[in-house]
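Troubleshooting entry. The earlier prediction with zinc ion gave an output that would not parse, so I re-checked the input for stray whitespace and re-submitted. Clean input:
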Amino acid sequence: MGAMPTRRVTVERNRLRFAASHMATFGGTCEPLHGHNYDVFVEVEGDLTKDGWVWDFGDLKRTTLGIIEQLDHRFLLQRRSTLLAIEERPTNWAIRFGEKGYVFPKEDVVALPVENTTSEQIAEWISGELAAALRAKGALSMRKLTVGIEEMPGQAGWYTVDL
Ligand SMILES: [Zn+2]
């Protein structure tokens, strides 16, 4: 019995990038505030449409860009962190880790529903937004979606989900 063929399209890098700051936690410690120029990779696996494609490259890039633009030039806050003390105020976010405290104006922050702002979890969030956006456009033949976030050359976190 032969394996089912798989067909995939990928879009990556070039305009699919954003610059953002964050501070991830690990092992009970917290990184100092810093930033990355993140490169984004997207792979869609699915059946061919009657036009012989899995998904239109241009549309896939535009849709991805619409999502990652929300992160560009922002501080990425892990809203569900169990290690940071996070207080939402009317005009800012107050964040404390031990003796260190930060206050960020709200317009500079994207509060992501994740436990930590690792590349893996940022990729997972983008993947959820992207899957919803593509489904809303009628992408019913998609079977699998992968998002990769390269935070520096040669260092990337990935998330794959079956749709
Ligand atoms: Zn980092």
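This one parsed fine. The chain has one domain: 8-23+35-153.
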